[in-house]
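Reviewers of the previous submission asked for a worked example of the structure-prediction workflow described in the proposal, so we include one complete record here. The input consisted solely of the amino acid sequence. No template or homolog information was supplied to the procedure at any stage.
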Amino acid sequence: MLTVAAAAFTLQARNVHFGFEGGFGISSPHGCSGSGIAYSAAARVEYNFSSLSKGWYVASGVGIYGKGWENDIEIAHYQAERTATAAYLQLPLMAGYRMPLSSTLSLMIETGPYAAIAVAGSYEDKTYHGANPYIIHSGDCFGNDAPYRRADIGWTAGVGLTIASRWLVGLKLARQFNSFDPEEKKSNFTYGLSLGCIF
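From that input alone, the workflow returned the following structure tokens.
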């Protein structure tokens, strides 16, 4: 019995794989007038029901995701432009499928929910006198008396390629369900290129 249990445990452990991924792209929140830069750097863990080259899998991990935006606002009857950047600690939970295209190449599709919490962020309000910007105000995005909420709950999806059962190349997007602005409906939306490695 112990031998059978040990063999079963070894078989299950072989289906668990760890890796990392990172990416960059565009952050274009709904409800904002301008876009910013998106980036990510995350650890990844997968459980493969078949193998790294074919079949169903579930994936998760944790990482830092950067999201930025611009928005037109009014301060004391002055029209101003707000530029903000934020960093989130994000945890996705995805289901995916790999379809072999050749002996070393597989198409991968994955999707699922995510939960994130902002760990840092700052904003800057500025107006213009001619071509020269004039900073009216700047501060932290989150915290006491700050303008934005930390929680970010949404859905993510991606499509890409697995190369030689190790390298990951794809396109990903993420859409926030709740609003990061307590006064108006504004929600994060990011998309871009993702690169990774799995062992």
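Residues 2-11 have pLDDT under 50 and may be disordered. We consider this example representative of the routine output the project will generate in years two and three.
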